[in-house]
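Review this chain:
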Amino acid sequence: MNNIPKMKIGIVAVSRDCFPESLSVNRRKALVDAYAAKYDAADIYECPVCIVESEIHMVQALDDIKAAGCNALCVYLGNFGPEISETLLAKHFDGPKMFVAAAEETQDNLIQGRGDAYCGMLNASYNLALRNIGAYIPEYPVGDAEDCADMIHDFLPVARAVYGLNNLKIISFGPRPLNFLACNAPIKQLYNMGVEIEENSELDLFAAFNDHAGDPRIPDVVKDMENELGEGNKKPEILEKLAQYELTLLDWVDAHKGYRKYVAIAGKCWPAFQTQFGFVPCYVNSRLTGRGIPVSCEVDIYGVLSEFIGTCVSEDVVTLLDINNSVPKDMYKESIEGKFDYKHTDTFMGFHCGNTCSKKITKPEMKYQMIMARSLPRLQTEHLREISYLEISHSIVSSQQPITRSVHMWHRVRYFLLQHAHSAA
């Protein structure tokens, strides 16, 4: 995946001038060693500058971690710490930041070896609030070297998500379908999160798609699709159009990414899409999502925002399911009651047509889309079954790859097997 950030956390130790600077420096070195012993040392950078109640030290540390290529910051209170300089560092660092503090190591050295970083953390958090600085502070932010190493590692997914959002552009092709107010996306809140958005029309996408007819790259994409689908390729005659559409989206991303580092797409898939393009885009959406470029349908801008966050946090392929329908009582009694600690009203079924990447499906199949076919006139429906509706069926998601914790995967698999068996009839 090259559409999510690779984080490098600069660790900057701070020291109050009434405490030995060496106490903070030695604790920083122990922290760095503890992290490298347990995790990937490439995740972190040890800043050699220790800030000792000096704004000049703060500037020196800031310049040093920038020069080292750090895109996240850990302010480490090796002792009480200077609340002004340390929070100024957080203020001027352009990226996600966290604060942690050193615990006292032993009862045998609580005079010369005590750092009072516990109290310093309270002051630091108060000063951060005074400055309106958003910083990550663990639930219990004080620990020894190993504890703080774990806290920094836990910060990595948070940092990836924050940094990713601050460098994300969502490209949409709308407007959203009729009666889909749930996909409403107030733009201001995206801006408040640091996300940029480029809104286009479905007609813009259609024009770009037509311009890609006969693209010489299409045969190679078709071959890749064939290899991916294997026996699940139920509509081979439509692959050329799908390849054309995939290239359209990828070229659009390249041409419209601008200065942003990461991209997600909120696209259209119905009602006019299937009649005008001649297919629905589920399979292509799933392929791009598998490469780390989340694609939502129904112009679900906040949905694809959630997918991008999930991708950053997990460093894995994500999917999006709707909270869709109730669990039939007979299924609940047969498969859940007495076996799991859930009331019937605790359960629901999640569903979404076709955006799940084949890497997360044990037996992917591409075929026509029953739900969308219902909304079309009968003659059109029969015709379009010939040119194909596409679906990556969620009926065969592996129980070893759960999508949601709210319903046990086996129950969903059993339900979807029944549902899609009927849809194929």
User: Anything to note?
Assistant: The CA atoms of residues 350 and 366 lie 20 Å apart. The chain is about 45% helix and 10% strand. Residues 145-165 form the longest helix (21 residues).
